[in-house]
Amino acid sequence: MSPAARRALAALAAVPLLTGALSACGYGSQKDSNTSPARARAVSGEKLSADSVRIGYFPNLTHATALVGDQEGLIQKELGGTKLRATTFNAGPSEIEALNAGSIDIGWIGPSPAINGYVKSKGGNLRIVSGSASGGVKLVVDPKKITSPEDVKGKRIATPQKGNTQDVAFLNWIASQGWKTDPRSGKGDVSVVRTDNKVTPDAFKSGSVDGAWVPEPTASKLVAEGGKVLLDESSLWPDGKFVITNVVVSQKFLAKHPDVVEAVLRGSVRTNAWIAAHPDEAKASANAALKKLGGSALPADVLDPAWQSIRTTDDPLATTLDAQAEHAVAAGLLDKPDLTGIYDLTLLNKVLKAEGKPPVDAAKLGRQ
């Protein structure tokens, strides 16, 4: 057996099958406490109501707004004399834990951990205050084994974590095909193999899995290994849009320092506008940030398609977050949650109005 195969099989054996309907990342995944130290940028100008603001995000292209906004100093510019301190996380559990503990004030994070953090605190911990990114999730398969959606039946398909956003989406797609798979064990007409994104390329290369429903840049890494995109999840959503990253804030920090939150959101909105106006420069900036944070940049054959499939957005696409929660309930991974009040888009809409942009909607899930 090759070293790659041994690594893949060992990793698959180590993937935990978790029992709680809710846990810190996604709807049923374990925490990952790996973080990078906080970094502060040089400041200038008048200080706001806080000396500093601590933000968190992933060194991942789906967090492009934070990557580029921090790398280019666009968010710090809006904060003036208030210091931006950034910490990066490898997974949602540790970021939600940091927000709960008061170690960070604002975070870029996926819909599943945002829902989970809100539900577990009975609505008392966080608010979603902005969108950040849409798309960037694909079903990539081995073209020698799978040439059509029908061929997925009977195959082994990887998802990042039990009950995480991509896992729920894949389970929902399986159900839409009329197939049955147990959401907890992953066994059934399709075998769902919960595999860390870092390990999935080795598992795919060794043949331990026949495909994967994964976010970027993992999807493009699989294509670089000979995989083929069978389905882009964007094709399953109205207008091709669905939330993959939101901006959340500690309710305590929001109440105490609304001017700081507003400044961060202004930086986010202006970063997204800069990314849209300068896509190639922004792509290079994001890759430079990834190199700085992780020690290596993405090669062009991975970076280019991955970047192309992600869209930054100020709109939190609230209806799609609600739909994702409904999919998790239908799969049996989540008790029906009350998400009323999970959004507070007041400051975002204030910023958007000042920027000459239309307001965004909370789909009846806004703060009453």
UniProtKB/TrEMBL annotation:
Has keyword Signal?
Answer: yes
* Ribonucleoprotein among keywords: no
Keywords (alphabetical) are: Cell inner membrane, Cell membrane, Membrane, Signal, Transport
Domain of life, per the record? Bacteria
Q: Name one GO cellular component term.
A: periplasmic space
Q: Signal peptide span per the entry?
A: 1-24
A GO MF annotation of the entry reads: ATPase-coupled transmembrane transporter activity
Primary subcellular site in the record, as a coarse category: membrane
Q: Which Pfam families match?
A: NMT1_2 (PF13379)
Locations listed in the record: Cell inner membrane; Periplasm
InterPro entries hit by this protein: ABC_SsuA_sub-bd, NrtA/CpmA_ABC-bd_dom
Query: What is the similarity comment for this entry?
Result: Belongs to the bacterial solute-binding protein SsuA/TauA family.
* NCBIfam families hit by this protein: SsuA_fam
Quote the protein name from its UniProt record.
Sulfate ABC transporter substrate-binding protein
